[in-house]
Amino acid sequence: MTPPDSQNIRNFSIIAHIDHGKTTLSDRLLEITHAVSKREMQEQVLDTMDLERERGITIKSHFVCLSYTDEKGVEYILNLIDTPGHIDFNYEVSRSLAACEGALLVIDSTQGVEAQTVANTYLAMENDLVIIPVMNKIDLPNNELEKSLNQMENIIGIGREEALLVSAKTGQGVDKIIPSIIERVPPPRGDRSKPLRALIFDSWFDSYRGVIILVKIIDGVLKKGEKIKFFSTNTFYEIDELGIFTPRSKPLAQLSAGEVGYIIGNIKNISEVKIGDTITMVKEKNVQPLPGFKEPQTMVFAGFYPGEGSSHEELRDAIEKLILNDSSLKFEPETSPALGIGFRCGFLGLLHKEIIQERLEREYNLSIISTSPSVRYRVTTTKAEVFEIESPSQLPPPQNIRKIEEPFIEAIILTPEEYLGNILKLLQNRRGVHKKMEYISTQRIYLTYHLPLAEVLYDFFNKLKSVSEGYASFDYELKGFIESPLVKLDILINQQPVDALSLILHRDKTYAVGNQLTSKIKSIIPRQLFEVVIQAAINNRVIAKTIVKSLRKNVLAKCYGGDITRKMKLLEKQKKGKKRMKRIGKVDIPQEAFLAAMELD
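Below the sequence we write its predicted structure tokens.
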């Protein structure tokens, strides 16, 4: 098979806010190009995981090569690269977009421009993509087409005359999309005579064939049997098979500049294949890697512990198997006094954590106890040493700390005007810093705020949906580390600090959280024969205190009258015994007390 002329290749992606019809539109494009027969056709063809189908989001990148012949009889190759649909996978989306020359921007005409629509558009613009706006769901009676087109012009800056009006569900107007892609999206710019440079934009592990890598050939030609090199890991492999997905795998003899395909090279370890890395030939010596590569940063950390009926060995095996398909997941063993042996896991974001936990429970039939998520803090000591910590126990003594920095995000929120007051109050409570507010229509407002990532982790999204009755949309981008007045809150039980209950908090919130936590622990710890004192302290200074009263035996029960001095002697003896018991007695802290600290608002 002769390689296609690069002038007849179009590489494009589909970007959209969640539930705006991205996957339904890709189904229609597969139908139009006859990539899937009517017998094989099902909803969400490119979504292979049950989780993707249920949640209506794309978790892994997918690629399919479509063949299309226009009215003049010219055959075109259309490479559709379907990108993950959530901010947690921002880097993966940026690498997938780097493999394209154009993007279909799908907007739901009943809802208009949403936060993720804006974020994805900016990402496409950074990669110099030609953007073709597609107004979807025009068949619905409640569509607000005029309002949506106005928002597209005002927020994104794309003229309304460029928009294609379609209904992906009924197929109305979809036949105009592919001719628009051919006309507007430029062909790839690669040079087949130059040394090989290929961009890795996704990979996964197959039990029988090893790691399967999705690549875009930027320059040169890649043939079966040739030896390749990965730039970031400096490892070498021989190509056993290469080809395209139609959506079934179709082996080819070679892939040329401008083409998108897969390669297999008996690679057993997925950690050697980095998304965004550059592939070249072993024989080439002076090839420059492609720009934009970086290691994926784990931003959210949580402990996974085996629940009832599961062992930590089973949990370890399951996590190791998941890492074969997701190299961005990190884990290390951890021991908790309450939960036993478990693992400290690092994730790209909250959705990534939810997906991993759900896959462990579904695919491996495990019961999992998850601790509350935390973020990574950056500490600078008085000796100018800089390091990052993931839990309060790693924090050095306060006298050795010069400053603590925490990760901040830039949040984009789009909301109807009537909910603005409630949303501003929520943002203020979460230590938000106002950056920008503008009206994008008479009733719709575009907000930009800087927020600490730690304040978004728990229930921010749920609270936002609650105060806006589900109408506000939210997206964010990590901006880096900013210094904050953070302190370590210690919980002491009978003067003994309990590491597992420690928290890193903003100084202004310590008093409220200290009171809340000591009260919650008091209600959980059973009464002892001696008094149990529960304290919250910062730098050895107690800021909250509560007492679990002791159980008291009635030592006067045997006294039937007589001299009062006899009763006083018995009470004094009991008092001394209780003092001694308090000094040497140990408090057994139930597991619920540790879980209480994790569930604080």
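The first helix runs from residue 22 to 32.
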